[in-house]
Amino acid sequence: MGWTFNPMPTPDLARLCKEIGLVAMEGIDRTHYPLVRELGLQISLVSSHGFAKGPFNKANHEFVIKSLREGIDSAVRFDCSKVITFTGMREAGISDEEGAKNCVDCWHEVISYAEKKKVTLCLEHLNSRDNSHPMKGHPGYFGDDIERCIDLIKRVGSPNFKLLFDIYHVQIMHGDVIRRLRLHKEHIAHYHTAGVPGRGELDDTQEINYPAVMRAILETGYTGYVAQEFIPTWDDKGLALRHAAKVCDV
Q: In angstroms, how far is CA 96 from the centroid of its own chain?
């Protein structure tokens, strides 16, 4: 996940990923996609409209649809099968049910295009509890309950609309990670990692037993990507990534 390793230049990070034996990257500017592919790495997930300005508010629908369609086109161009989407933030004057309907209506406008292009839209569940850092938690985010996200996915009703199960965010909001990923396995299309608390390395300072989680993911039959989205705190960021890759290699 490129953004978490800033300010490391993306080309350097891409070469490090290749050296470690990782197979894909995401969370990087699309201008770097050609280099990543030239190195023999895949693009595991294409970005889109961002988590703040989402379909919860109908006023954002034109922007969201345009962004998702552009993301789908980029995914096709670079042989990627997934594009991320978000609910956006709650807003005053819009009830949860109205916001949910707004989200579903918006996604219905673009899902047929995703199906046609054989791309899956991945709705990311985010935590709204951590307010210590703008990228460690997202107070006010509508999709902060995993059951709500699953309900939205069912309401869209397409095999090309699924859940991005972020282990870090699920642990903060709900816990019981392994039971939840097993329960929702049919609706999960992508995974993200990070240590809890703090969104740091997958080391012994955090509470998630990542080897056990990885084994549980494999037991569900999942064959997709698991992206390392922790924010490094070690002086050697490359070593932190090597360590995370080893921890998750079960």
A: 22
Which tens digits make up the pLDDT trace of 61-118?
Answer: 999 999 999 999 999 999 999 999 999 999 999 999 999 999 999 999 999 999 999 9
* Residue-level length of the chain: 250
Q: Alpha-carbon distance 98 to 104, whole Å?
A: 10
pLDDT confidence of residue 136: 98
Q: Is the dihedral of CA 224, 169, 186, 159 positive or negative?
A: negative
- Is there a contact between 141 and 89 (Cβ–Cβ < 8 Å)? yes
Is the CB of residue 86 less than 8 Å from the CB of residue 49?
yes
Rounded Cα gap, residues 53 and 231, in angstroms: 23
Extract the tokens encoding 76: 């096709």
Q: Structure tokens of 190?
A: 């992508």
Q: Residue 143 has which token pair? A: 């999709």
